[in-house]
Amino acid sequence: TQLNFTVAIDFTASNGNPSQPTSLHYMSPYQMNAYAMALKAVGEIIQDYDSDKLFPAYGFGAKLPPDGKISHAFPLNSNTGNPNCVAIEGVLEAYFHTLRTVQLYGPTNFAPVINQVARCAAEVTDGSQYFVLLMITDGVISDMAQTKEAVVN
């Protein structure tokens, strides 16, 4: 059985301004922020169970350049055709790049990214792959009814 590990990170304004030490996205020159630490802690363990070490990584709740369109399921590597990052270090690199290029906004909608991963999982009909989605967020959910429906589906 192949494990497919996917990451989704909350880029909403409720996380605070990344230039401020109180933000979960704070970019300190001395230590990793809370999101990066959580991603690294889980990712370093789970990556050993994923043979290809290619991890789709998404963000949600941000305004994207160049037009400022809000997205709730955008690839961190900016490649809509292939959202994979190589190993957990690749996910961290894409996360830090994205943090410098998007505008934190909102609302915090979980359903779009859950549905995105579910569509990928639905393509595998022989039971040979197991999908795990790690969502790193501050806990505020704006689309609770849709999120419940997405999880149930």
From TrEMBL:
Residues 23-153 form the Copine C-terminal domain. InterPro entries: Copine, Copine_C, vWFA_dom_sf. This is Copine-9.
